[in-house]
Known about the structure:
By secondary structure, the protein is of the alpha/beta class. A 3-stranded mixed beta sheet has the order 2-1-7, covered by helices on one side. A 3-stranded antiparallel beta sheet has the order 3-9-5, covered by helices on one side. It has a two-stranded antiparallel ribbon with strand order 4-10. The chain is globular and about 60 Å long. About 10% of the residues are buried.
Amino acid sequence: MEKCRRLENAALRDEGEASQTLRVESIAGDASDPNIQQFARRTHLRIGRGVHLTVSDSSVTVRETHAWVLCTTHRPPTADAKGSLGDYCIKIGPVLPFFCTLSYAISRRRSVRQNVIGRIKYRARDYGLYDPEPGVLGFVKPPDKYEHEQELRVLWLPEEREVVKPFVIDCPEVAQYCQRIF
């Protein structure tokens, strides 16, 4: 994802891509406190038994930096799509067999611990400890700049030992789910 951020068209670039920020005014307690457990879960912290934690006036940003990503849209292309999003437009359908076929091909070449498909939620990425989470990490974008994209995204998350680098996947089996629009 980091490499994609650097290659992306600057006008389309989302600097906060695949990140969420939890803001905490004040919280204190030990590992058995439900509020501390929620804080730990949301920030990916492990807090051992008997540990007392105090956090005040802080923010924690969680960011997914290592994943392979396929960004698409679930809306028909607009007249300006060719110039702004690329030279080609491919209609994919049905989506689920395409996703499963491609995921299988990727898993034969790379160590994948999880793959996720879904529509982007357009809302703020910052939230408080007692607020609902904005959405799945990597599937939330600010509405003001990006909602017009109506993005459908696929993430393949690697095993920890896997080095994430761009690669070309040879998967002719997905051609049956693809139709070139332009």
